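Aim 2, interim progress: modelling of the nicotinamide-adenine-dinucleotide-bound target.
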Amino acid sequence: MQKILITGGAGFIGSHVVRRFVTQYPSAQIVNLDALTYAGNLANLTDIEHQPNYTFVKGDITDAAFIDELFNAHDFTGVVHLAAESHVDRSISDPMAFVMTNVIGTVNLLNAARIAWKGKEEGRRFYHVSTDEVYGELHDPKEFFVETTSYDPRSPYSASKASSDHFVRAYHNTYKLPVVISNCSNNYGPNHFPEKLIPLMINNIRNNKPLPVYGKGENVRDWLYVEDHARAIDLIFHEGVNGETYNIGGCNEWKNLDLVFLLCKVMDEKLGRPEGTSAQLITYVTDRAGHDLRYAIDPSKLMNALGWKPSVTFEEGLEKTVQWYLDNQKWLDDVTSGNYQKYYDGMY
Ligand code: NAD
Ligand code: TDX
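Predicted structure of the complex, ligand included:
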């Protein structure tokens, strides 16, 4: 029987991956390990929490003894590792939290898998979910990140993710641990924590609050609907080749300012406000330190090797996303109270 450990399954992308694995593979046992930090929210999984093939374990990947015990207690056939500190701005104010979870936490999992799987690696897989930010920033509009692009991380967040990617490859090379890595572009969709650009703007428009655009809003991101990322992870986990890296992207580049204007337009329509109302909330604020100019993925390898392509257009994805936030105001209000509010109040 397949027993798959998914880390960070209470977070944004993790919750979509958990839902997909629990529903697509009813004969596989899915164990969701999450420390429930500010970003982890079991309310993301209420629809599947009673499924017989789903178990939640609260625990911290920085705790090596706990991780070793977990691997002793369960014969995991696979790991899908998403648990991380994920917000670039937080990495600028508290880099050590990123070293602890993203680097030490990943190495704890690699060690546990290496020891537990020694001599019986066949048919098992350690999947590390990573980001396009490890490649640094692009300036030439004709350039894209491919799997062989040199690493050039430029924020504490991307440096911690790059480090974890290197450890995963080192464990493959040194210990023959069966690993696979993917590096994905910016995700958006339901359950996205409202410290990130798209949900933050939706929430602030709803509440008539300023819309903070960093610098001149000229930075470019490549946006992918979260369920398309979850589909890619499923495909790579089941059909990818050990030792390989796959880039995942939406082929959907937007300048931040253009995207914020688009969100204002969609929200004005949804809220029945005259066009142009929300755009008046746009406020230019001090730029992010070391702000990467452009990220853009070339996902040809994944498309050609495994037949993946995005299934949701940006128009459809944004419509679904905005509607989800309007229909789930309690979710938003719950996560924007308490500690988050203190963090957010200190931002500008
Ligand atoms: P998120 O911040 O929404 O969720 C992270 C989850 O990890 C939370 O549930 C949190 O409680 C858990 N976690 C954090 N520290 C932990 C610890 N020490 N032990 C156990 N659990 C812990 O993040 P996300 O946006 O869903 O990203 C998930 C993964 O995908 C990350 O590895 C991130 O680097 C990667 N990624 C994200 C994006 C994106 O656009 N969001 C793009 C590419 C890659
Ligand atoms: O208030 C804001 N104003 C603003 O102009 C915020 C929160 C962001 N921005 C800009 C910064 C970026 O250029 O918008 C862009 C997107 O910012 P984020 O949503 O913070 O995402 P980013 O920094 O690009 O990183 C995301 O994508 C890659 C995720 O947070 C990472 O976890 C992932 O690896």
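Residues 95-117 form the longest helix (23 residues). The two ends are 51 Å apart (CA to CA).
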